Amino acid sequence: MQLLERYLQAVKFWLPKEQKEDIIAELSEDIRSQIDEKEAELGRKLNEVELEAILKQCGRPILVANRYLPQEQLIGPVLFPIYRLVLKIVMLCYLVPWIVTWIALLIFNSGYAAKFAGHSWVEILGSLWAQLWGTAFLAAGTVTLVFAILERVQRKSHFLEEWSPRKLPPVNNPSLISRFNSIVELAANMIFCLWWTANMSSGVVLNQVNLRIALAPAPWRYFFWGFLLIAFVNIGLAVANLARPYWTAPRAAIRLVSDMAGSVFFCWLLKANILAEFSGASIPPEKAVQVTALLNLWMGRIFPIAVILGVVIAVVNIFRIVRVAAPPPHIPGETTAMA
Amino acid sequence: MLNIVYVTSYAAHCTFMSSENFDNLRLELRRGGLVVAVLAALHSEQYGYTLRKIMADHGIEIDEGTLYPLLRRLESQGLLKSKWREEQKRNKRFYQLTVAGKQILEQLLTEWRSMDSSINSILKEYGHATSRTVFASR
Question: Quick one: which of A13, A272, A311, B8 is 20 to 30 A from A224 by CA?
Answer without folding.
Answer: A311
